[in-house]
Amino acid sequence: MLALHNVSRTYPNGVHALRGVTLHIGPGLFGLLGPNGAGKSSLMRTIATLQPMDAGSITMDGIDIFADVTSHRARLGYLPQDFGVYPGLSARMLLDHLALLKGLTDKASRRAQVDALLEQVNLWEHRHRAVSGFSGGMRQRFGIAQALLGDPRLLIVDEPTAGLDPAERSRFYNLLSAVGEQVVVILSTHIVEDVRQLCTHMAIMNRGQVVCEGVPDDLVGELEGRVFSRTMGRQETWTNTARGTPLSHTLHAGQTRLRLLADSAPDAQSTPTAATLEDVYFRAIGPVA
Ligand SMILES: Nc1ncnc2c1ncn2[C@@H]1O[C@H](COP(=O)(O)OP(=O)(O)OP(=O)(O)O)[C@@H](O)[C@H]1O
């Protein structure tokens, strides 16, 4: 169990990136959602002990992660938003090299682990190809393989599906959910659907704070029966709309569809509609104009 208590961080430039974050993260896949700049990467990097915090505490199974950074890192796998690769090095050679850097010094067991990981992430047949020439999805799967070196107990994955096409994304989802059966996985993303498809627990961050936390289905269930939808009138603007709390608006076949939160139908045009995790998200962070 990873426990964060009142974690705060202000960068030297004065940006208050984390403001008293408290979270308890157990086994399975934990989704961390939030808009750009919410503080997700800052939190990930802090949990990975790549940057300090100004206040608060983080423990893993009751042990302060900053008390013994080396042993925490040995139990940690991290896939950052952008990870560089050496040009020209094959997947197998690069993974072997990264394994060595991670302290896997015994050649035979290192090779065995490298090969097993390449199989696990479905890159075995591409093991002799240069990682620098991989597609986005293959690269991310390689990223998971490198993060899993040394059998970590905690895996941190920061916005992994950006730029992946639907097929690659779904392959990546399958891999991540299989991994999530064995280790604690924290997935940071601003794609609500990622969390919907993968995560058993989640939190939403906004402006450095956790503004919503729970089980995705429960959070959606809390809004059930209170979400209404209607076409937005031509003269109407996002802010002068009638009753109910506006959640979001989307274009559908050239018309703007408005989603509202209200205890009963706000007007004759609104129809009840099934609540979604996106409604939970917009309710937590506030409507986007
Ligand atoms: N090293 C840094 N020095 C100064 N400010 C930073 C640094 N890293 C992040 N910030 C600022 O801290 C805030 C939180 O950024 P962070 O990258 O943690 O958010 P995020 O939720 O991961 O966003 P994104 O989805 O865009 O990656 C932002 O205002 C950002 O500009």
TrEMBL record:
Short name of any one Pfam family annotated for the protein: ABC_tran
Organism: Gemmatimonas aurantiaca
GO MF, one annotated term: ATP hydrolysis activity
Keywords: ATP-binding, Nucleotide-binding, Transport
Biological classification of the source: Bacteria, Pseudomonadati, Gemmatimonadota, Gemmatimonadia, Gemmatimonadales
Entry annotated with the keyword Cytoplasm: no
Protein known as: ABC transporter ATP-binding protein
UniProt keyword ATP-binding present: yes
Residues in ABC transporter domain copies: 2-232
Similarity-based family: Belongs to the ABC transporter superfamily.
Record InterPro entries: AAA+_ATPase, ABC_transporter-like_ATP-bd, ABC_transporter-like_CS, P-loop_NTPase
Domain of life: Bacteria
